[in-house]
């Protein structure tokens, strides 16, 4: 018996709060790669000078994920457990995070824009596909 199943899955959207951009991506795409593909500035000054290229070693690709949306990304890795010690619980290393479903993300949470709360409120007020 030949069973052919076609599964249609809605493409996840990453809502980049700082940049005001909704970016479609593939299920399973690396979050760092999504940001770089779209030309978004993932890195602060230190990361621009030099980063590890996505190997989880330089801790310059911080992002924070909106409260309650941590499950939109792959589980936190062992590298992140170590490298993010002492950081807020919703922070990730973009290079270690894989997109599962749509999420709202703030790049460079270590230096948030002055209006971060209003930007986040606006981002949360609009629907995201699952
Ligand atoms: S790019 Fe170096 S830790 Fe993510």
UniProtKB/TrEMBL annotation:
GO terms for biological process: P450-containing electron transport chain. It holds the Pfam family Fer2. Keywords: 2Fe-2S, Iron, Iron-sulfur, Metal-binding. SUPFAM superfamilies: 2Fe-2S ferredoxin-like. Residues 12-111 form the 2Fe-2S ferredoxin-type domain. InterPro entries: 2Fe-2S_ferredoxin-like_sf, 2Fe-2S_ferredoxin-type, Adrenodoxin-like, Beta-grasp_dom_sf. Its cofactor is [2Fe-2S] cluster. GO terms for molecular function: 2 iron, 2 sulfur cluster binding; electron transfer activity; metal ion binding. PROSITE patterns: 2FE2S_FER_2 (PS51085). Coiled coil: none annotated. Belongs to the adrenodoxin/putidaredoxin family. This is Ferredoxin. It comes from Prochlorococcus marinus (strain SARG / CCMP1375 / SS120). The lineage of its organism: Bacteria, Bacillati, Cyanobacteriota, Cyanophyceae, Synechococcales. The gene is fdx.
């Amino acid at each position: 018996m030949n069973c052919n199943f076609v599964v249609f899955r809605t493409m996840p959207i990453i809502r980049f709060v700082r940049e005001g951009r909704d970016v479609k991506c593939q299920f399973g795409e690396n979050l760092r790669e999504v940001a770089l593909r779209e030309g978004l500035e993932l890195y602060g000054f230190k990361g621009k000078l030099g980063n590890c290229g996505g190997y989880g070693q330089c801790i310059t690709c911080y992002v924070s994920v909106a409260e309650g949306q941590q499950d939109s990304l792959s589980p936190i890795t062992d590298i992140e457990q170590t490298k993010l010690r002492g950081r807020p619980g919703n922070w990730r290393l973009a290079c270690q995070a894989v997109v599962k479903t749509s999420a709202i993300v703030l790049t460079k949470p270590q230096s948030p824009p002055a209006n971060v709360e209003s930007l986040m409120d606006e981002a949360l007020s609009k629907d995201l596909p699952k």
